[in-house]
Amino acid sequence: MVDRETTHRNNNKVTRLLKAARLKLQAHPEEIDYQHPRGLHRSQFADLLSSRWVHQHHNVLITGPTGCGKTYLGCALANQACRHGLSVRYFRTSRLLESLSIAHGDGRFAKLTQQLAKTDLLVLDDWGLEKMTLSQRNDLLEIMEDRHGLRSTLITSQLPISQWHKAIGDATLADAILDRLLHNSHKLNLKGESMRKAMSKMGQSDHSE
Asked: Angle CA(41)–CA(14)–CA(57) in degrees, nearest 5?
C-alpha cells in the first residue's frame, strides 16, 4: 500500500514537471532510433539519459543539420530529467530572448531570471538562427552567469560550435557566454541525411512495392 502511494506521488510529480517544462515534443527515450547513420552513439547517449550530467551541473550541446533529430534528442533528455525529478524549461532561443525583452518593459525581468536560475535544466532550441542585439547578448550572458556551475543548459543548433562566436556577434560578450557554456559540456555532433527525408523516401519505397 505504501509502495503504491509512493509510486502515485512520484507519477504526479513527473506529470507536473513535464507540464511545467513545456517541451516542444513528447520525446520518449525508449523510442530513439540508433540505427539511422547520424553519428549518435548508444553508449554516450545512454550515459546522458542517466541525468548525471544535470546533477553535476554540466551542459549538453547538440549540433547538426536540419532534420537530424536534434530537438527530439534534446526533448528526450529533458523528458528523462523530469522522470528523475528535475525541473526543466524548454524555449526556442529566439522566444526566450523575446520574453526577456518584454520582461524588461513590464518589470518582470528580475522575476523571470530568478525563475530560470532555479530551473535544473534549461533547454534552448534553435540556437544561433537569428542575429542578437546588444541587449539580447547582455540578457543571455546574465542567464548563463546565473547558471554557470550551478545548473545545466542544453543547446540545439544547426550551426557548428566553431560558428557560435560569430553568431553571437560581439567578441567580448561571445567569449564570456561561450566560456560558461563550453565549460564541462558534453557535445553531440550529428551528421548525415535528414531523418525526415529518409523517412519520406522509405514511405515512397513502401508505396511503390
From this structure: 55
